[in-house]
Amino acid sequence: MSLNTQNEEISIMTEHHSPQNISIYSFGFGTTFGISVVVAYCSESFMPLGIYMAALALFHELEYLLTALFNANKLSLDAFLLNNGIHYYIANGSGLIEFLIELYFFPGLKRIGFLHYLGFTLIVIGQVARTLAMWHAKHNFSHQVATYKRQEHVLVTTGIYAYLRHPSYFGFLWWAVGTQILLCNPFSSIGFFIILKRFFQNRIREEEKLLIKFFGNDYIEYQKRTSIYIPLI
Fold first, then answer.
1. Domain residue ranges in the chain
2. How many CB atoms are closer than 10 A to CB 20?
3. pTM for the whole thing?
4. Which CATH number does the domain 3-225 belong to among 1.20.120, 1.10.10, 1.20.58, 1.20.1090?
5. Cellular location of this protein (predicted)?
6. Kind and range of the H or E element at 51?
């Protein structure tokens, strides 16, 4: 690849990740959050959907914001995590379709107050755990599994990491499952848990092999005094 071609690609990437595009994304999430809160407040039937959409908008905005605070060198529009693959859109679309179909045919199913409270609690716990994970890890946090040890890469064992070994995975799994419990979606709740549990099980297995390679006995000792708190992992 020539130097000119590399410069052109960098120029295109910089233009794509422009202040205008960042503002458009953030404005969209902010608008979605505001409208969703109004819907949740004004409509009993669509209250769970409003909270779900507000939680979704907040999640994506926080992913970008925390990346900007601590990993500016990795910052791009992908930090919003909108480009999460087709499976992410299928999962969220399926949850939305299930909610609307069941609301139409079985409206009583969507008015189980206990599940609303449980789902909302899991969303809050999950979001707080993931946010704290990014906050305490700072520049050590990455949306991609690191396959080599950078010079500035350290083993974080303080803050939330003193209690949870993979708080970002713990947070996302329970956040996602919580959204479906909030919507009183029986099929999506089970499906989300099974798929995410399998995904994180494989990812944690791969990541911990690398972390033992990076940090040796320090990480093995850290494993012994912490837990993951994801069932069956």
1. 3-225
2. 8
3. 0.90
4. 1.20.120
5. Endoplasmic reticulum membrane; Membrane
6. helix 47-70
